[in-house]
Each structure stands twice: as C-alpha cells, then as structure tokens.
Amino acid sequence: MPADSAKEVGERVAARRHARRLSQPQLAGAASVSLAMIRAIERGARNPSDSTLEAIATALRVDPTQLRTGYTGTERRIHSALPALSAVITGYDIPQGAPGRGPGELAAAVAEAAAWRLAAQYGRIAEHVPALLHDAIRYVHTAPVGDHAAATHMLASLARTADAVAYKHGATDLSARLIDLMRWAADQAGDPLLKASVAYVRTETFFAARAHAPGLVALEQALDEAPAPTTRTAAAARGALHMRAAVIAARGGNVTSADEHLAHARAYGDQVATEGTYLGTSFGPDSVRTHELALAVSLGQDHVDRALKIPTEWKPPATLPAERRSGFYIELARAQLWGGLHEHAFESLKVARLAAPQHTREHPWAREVAADLRRFHRSDAESLTHFAEWIGAI
C-alpha cells in the first residue's frame, strides 16, 4: 500500500488540531515537540517520525492510524510489552516491598488506565500499565487494613485493563493468568460485586476455547452468587452477567437460554435506566441493545434478518464507550456480509475503525469480513484494498 504523503498527514494533523480547538503552540507543548516541527508537518514539509507521530496523536487524543493510514507502531509496542506484563504478575501473591507511588497517585492512574480500556487505547495501556501493575501488586501487600479493600479493587481494575491488551492481541495464556490475578484480588477484597465483575471478564477464557456450555454454567453460577439488585450497581452487575450469558448461549446454539438471559438483561437495563460504567463494565439500555445484535450474529447466518432489523430501529450513541461502539459495527458488518449487503458492510467496518481503530484492527471478525469483501470485489475502489491491507486481511 502506498504510504501517505507528508501533505496528507499534515492535513489530518491540522484538521484534528482544529477540532480539538488547539493552537499550533498548544499542540507543540502538549506533544513535547518544537513549534517549528508542528508547522512543518502541517504544511506538508516534514513527515513525522513514528515517535513524533505518536506524541502528536496522544496530544490530540486520537489513534496514530487516524493520522497515518496503516501505521503499525502501536502494534509493535503492544507486542513488545506483553513479556513485561507476564513478568510483573509472576509471584503476585508474594510480598515484594513498597510501591513507588502513593495511594492517591496510584488511584488516579488506575482510573485513567480504565478509561483507556473503554476507549480501546491499547498502545497507551501497553506503555504504562506494566509499571502500574507492579505498584498495585506491592500496594495490596502493604496497604493499611482500612485501605486494603480499595487496594484490591485497584489491582483488579489494572489486571482487567492489561487483559484487554493480552486477550485482543492473541496472548490467551497471559489473558488467563491476568484473569486469575483478578479472581485472587476479588477473593482478597471479599466483595461479591467485584466477584461478579470478574466472572463477567472470565467468560473470555470460555470464548477463546469455544467452551460455550461450561461458560454458560459459570455465568449462571455467578448470577446465583451475585448480590440482590437492591442498588444500581448491583442491578448493573447482574444485568452485565445476563448480557454475557445471552451471547455465550447463542454461540452454543441455545436460542431459548439466550433469549431468556437477554430479557433479564433488558429488565435490569430498564432498572438502571442510565447508561454508565459500573465496576469497570459498561451497562445500561444502550449496552443491552448492542448485545441484542451480538446475540443475533452469534446465532449464525440463519438469523441474519433478526440481526439486520436492529440497526433500523437503533444505533449506538456517541456517548457509548468506543470499544463497544466499534464492536457493534463489526458485528453489523458480519451480518450485512451474510445478507449480501457488501457496500453497507464496508461502511460499517469504516465506522468501527473511526470509533476504535486499535480494536477494529485486532478483531478477527473485522479481518474476516474485510478479506471476504476483498475477494468479492477485487476490482473495486482502492479504498477497500487499502482497508484490507491495513487490517491485515490480504
């Protein structure tokens, strides 16, 4: 694929800067590069290096692929970080001294990392979370009794954030170890709501192994153990488990169970009423609607009409986390491909990439749909070829 010209990159940087309402000096300061460099890039006189591009992208709060098509520096950084993640969680149950950050600084960093996960900013996670996990593990072992519960919650949150990188980049063994760390932290906390949250994430291991029947059993056991839905957070925790159960039941071909769990999720969504993030999981009426599509697609091509009906009635709002919006449009693209709506499928993939480029690029179904579209339309517009090359489908 031909590289973007310096002019094209510069125009994108300028457009994003204007959208963020930043001046050139402000962008230069935020990216820690010279004002002369920003000016040269924007007028197309300089093509930024990988490190400069990433610094500018971070300052603009976008993925580098939105500035340079086909950029792979993020993926290289993520894969190089996986061994560090693996090393830092080895011996998590062994006291190893005091953390390098104080409780307040660590809590703020954990919250920021959780926001990166919901926004599918995996490059940032890879860069910062190994060191954060190191401190969080140490803090669990050294926190005063009164702060121990908060420490274990922070550790579970960070392990979940790290798992987003491991799982979505194919490191399934590391993902399973991070989930074990989450379960250990939840046991340390003694918090049934945190345990419910961990059970939601644990389903990844069943998805990866295609062990749908035992995965459904595990989720139903978690529902039996979850607290009564007397608070909004408790209702959201139960609703999220039902959402997950609906999809894994559908992948196992259990239509009746899938529909029953979805109905329960919808009821809890109505009870919660407000879409939000509860114990690290997005839940509410909008999240339930995204899972309606996931359920229909998981049931297979025989249910394509059911899947295609959903976006005629509802589309994800911009307020929904980027990863969830991206996932919706990837699922929709798959259904549209099955339905012979090839142009619509390509448009859905482009919307998914716009919402969360890193998530879309690493999603196997997005790659599968792009590859199929490319086979059907070998002589089509150059944009389809570029997209298929960007996502690794050809």
The strands making up the biggest β-sheet line up spatially as 1-2
Strand/helix succession: HHHHHHHHHHHHHEEHHHHHHH
- Annotation field: number of helices: 20
Biggest β-sheet description: 2 strands, antiparallel
How confident overall, as mean pLDDT?
Answer: 92
Radius of gyration from the CA trace?
22 Å
Low-confidence stretches: none
* Shape assignment: globular
What is the domain total for the residues? Answer: 4
Our estimate of the beta-strand percent is under 5%
Query: What's the N-to-C terminus distance?
Result: 11 Å
What is the SS-derived class? mainly alpha
- Binned, the helix content reads over 70%
Q: Count every beta strand, where a strand is a DSSP E run of 2 or more residues.
A: 2
Present the secondary structure layout.
Blueprint: H1 6-19, H2 24-31, H3 35-42, H4 50-60, H5 73-88, H6 103-118, H7 122-142, H8 148-168, H9 172-189, H10 192-209, H11 212-225, H12 232-251, H13 255-272, E1 276-278, E2 281-283, H14 285-298, H15 304-313, H16 322-338, H17 342-355, H18 357-362, H19 364-376, H20 382-391
Antiparallel strand pairs: 1-2
Helix pairs in contact: 2-3, 2-4, 5-7, 6-7, 6-8, 7-8, 8-9, 8-10, 9-10, 10-11, 10-12, 11-12, 12-13, 12-14, 13-14, 14-15, 14-16, 15-16, 16-17, 16-19, 17-19, 19-20
